[in-house]
Input
Amino acid sequence: MSDLASLESEILAQVSAAADEPAIEAVRVSALGKKGVISERMATLGKMAPDERKAAGAALNVLKDKVSEALSARKAVLGEAALEARLATETLDMTLPVRPQMQGTIHPVSQVWEEVVQIFGDLGFSVAEGPHIEDDFHNFDALNMPPDHPARQEHDTFYFNEKPDGSRMVLRTHTSPVQIRTMLSQKPPIRIIAPGRTFRSDSDMTHTPMFNQVEGLVLDETTHLGNLKWILAEFCKAFFEVDEVKMRFRASHFPFTEPSMEVDIQYAREGGQLKIGTGDKWLEILGSGMVHPNVIRAGGLDPDKVQGFAFGMGLDRLAMLKYGIPDLRAFFESDLRWLRHYGFRALQVPTLAGGLS
Ligand code: DAH
Output
């Protein structure tokens, strides 16, 4: 027994001498680990006579418990000391200046997109969407532009490779195909706008191969040209945030409308900036007209029963006009300096009622 007593004091001395967590772990392994002194003694129990084993086993268990207890007590003390030491070095310097946070801006196109949706939303329109990759039917045929129609050549279309059946998909050249998709999937009364990307093989100061348009379509039993003019006037006033906009409705031609009109708004150039609503110059902003009976038919509806108007305008162009941005190409170059200059802070969308929501 005295042998066990001296072993106990030896181990307990090691425990209290352990100065850090790795040291205490080493003591644990040397005493209680598989090859530790106590474990080795436990292994000799099997060879003892039953009586002897009982007494020796009990004594060894007592020793084991004492050592385990001492180990965990020491471990707790050391753990706390380690934490204290770490906390002492990890002081927070409250006087450090705040690190600058990079703040993003809303792209002018996104801003104008939201404004347009908001204004037409106030006028009872909902938003419709269509795919960027279109077939001939939706992009051309159904819009009263059959294969030999001259307007097709004016569209600088991006075509995909021919399919086995000879047809070719296109990157939609305008948002007008959404008119057809809406007619085929919704019953009149229809009142939608379709903002979205469009594509034409064209590039200069005012043209980029990818650009954005917004399409409008209203179809029911009675909508007429007067309604179209009113809606467009309301839109222009709300969008350009002016009380009056002088508008000129010029007879024009689009395959998908009859009659067709192009719409100009009056503006003045003041100090290099455009001022909408006054002046003596005219700026074309959109195409529009009463939906052609052939288009209504292609949309699966009866032109003797439903009628209405459509319009289409360039979202990017609206952004250039409203916010005085001279070069369209810069819109899509992702230059951070440009975005910081022309971008918008979040949560500022004018409503029809004016002001900010
Ligand atoms: N789709 C025409 C374009 O891309 C714009 C347009 C004109 C759309 C007249 C219309 C419309 O809905 O009625 O140039």
User: Anything to note?
Assistant: Residues 50-89 form the longest helix (40 residues).
